[in-house]
Amino acid sequence: MTFNSVYTTFRTPSKRVKQVLSIPRKLPLFILAVPVVVAIHLIRPWLLVRWGLLHGPRIGHFAANTELYLCERDAGINVPRKRHIDIFFMEERICNQQLAKMWKRILYVWPAWWILPSLQRVNRLIPGGVVHEIGDNTQRDRDVHNLLDKSPPHLTFTIEEEAFGEAGLRMMGIPHGTPFVCLLVRDDAYLDAHINKNWTYHSYRDSDISNYVLAAEALADRGYFVIRMGAKARDPIKSCHLRVIDYATNGMRSDFMDIYLGAKCEFCISTSSGFDAIPTIFRRPIVFVNSLPVGYSSTFSDKYLTITRHHFSVQLNRLMSLAEIFSSGSAFFLCSEDYKSNGIKLIENTPEDICDVVIEMTDRLNGTWKASENDDTLQLNFWKIFATDAVDVHNGRPLHGNIRARFGSAFLRNSGSWFLG
To answer: Which residues contact 297 (CB under 8 A, 6 or more apart)?
Structure first.
């Protein structure tokens, strides 16, 4: 071993060494946790106390996981049959303070998040301690029981918040009663800025905002306001239309308005990114475009419309059919490198593709949608090929419940001859 390697090893302790060195600092917390855990175990015959963590740093999990926990609780799924109380800990880093405030109104939230690891470790030293941990929902943020369509939202705004939100809409130039649509186009700006981790493995989900201008202006011409969302964005949306508002870059965004806009929008256009969990938990319709991975598409609600990116096979020198996407395994790839190493190039939806599916959503919501002669047949053929019984490779749990979503009609008309071939 060279001097430099010894020096580097000395300067950079292993994970195990770091854990050992941290024991003196954590010891008071362990000592504090012991009587708490013992007391909780002693009262278990009369009252089961459980605890869990709210996933605060990322809004998708912070919103969807929590709402689905409440839906499952109401439906009697994944809850103890005996008398119990659930207490949550909220991490120090919170992605949205307004959402945190609203969850605290309806959940028991313990403010001292830092004691949770000590409680967990002490609890697991006692046989049977796992019953005190709430754990994940059936499938975390996936509504495999189709509960969102069966129940109203758990969160509501106060009278004061409703007034504040309406005032915020007026400040943005949106007249009272005028419908607006949220537009969410994923890039890596937020994660790079706020979470210290290399996120390039998710770059296959990023999308070019310029491809959404056509759809945004088509909506604006129909009388909608289009609000481009995002806590941080790499590029502005380049539109001169007065009804297209770049809320993500114009300095008007706030934690409160993020939640209010997502809750009150006519519908949301999303590239399947975290914010769309807000319209989800408030039961707003969503158009998913450039959706990936195909096998993870949101299928749980009849309020959803989806189109996916095209998959181009370098080996075959052509676009892949839906059956080939599933048979190759690429319908479930979760890393950019997976697509690259398998010789698959992902092609973004064209502006026309996006505009078509967005207009389909508006027509369906307005009751003016006119289906073509073969639309129902194309839908049936699509879902026959789609692996509706797929399971998550990490935990073996189902990815889908009853299929209630629709795939974009124009997309299937334009590409069905080879896509469904």
So the answer is: 288, 291, 306, 308, 386, 405
Q: Span 92-97, mean pLDDT?
A: 90
Q: Domain range for residue 104?
A: 18-132
In a domain, 53, yes or no: yes
31 and 70 share one domain: yes
User: Are 233 and 76 spatial neighbours (Cβ–Cβ below 8 Å)?
Assistant: no
Q: Which tens digits make up the pLDDT trace of 360-384?
A: 999 999 999 999 999 999 999 999 9
More confident of the two residues 15 and 371:
371
Instruction: Determine the Cα–Cα distance for residues 51 and 129; give it in Å rounded to an integer.
Output: 11
Regarding whether 395 and 296 lie in a shared domain, the answer is yes
Residue 3, pLDDT score: 36
Rounded Cα gap, residues 265 and 284, in angstroms: 7
Domain for residue 344, yes or no? yes
Query: Bridge-partner residues for 109, per DSSP?
Result: 88
Spatial distance between the Cα atoms of 201 and 409, rounded to a whole number of angstroms: 31
Same domain for 380 and 265:
yes
Q: Which residue in the block uniquely carries the two structure tokens 């069966």?
A: 150
pLDDT in tens, 283-314: 999 999 999 999 999 999 999 999 999 999 99
Are residues 327 and 290 located together in one domain of the fold?
A: yes
Same domain, residue pair 341 and 193: yes
Same domain, 193 and 121: no
Is residue 366 in some structural domain? yes
pLDDT digits (tens, 9 = 90+) for 205-248: 899 999 999 999 999 999 999 999 998 788 999 999 999 999 99
Burial class (CB in 10 A: 0-12, 13-18, 19+), 43: exposed
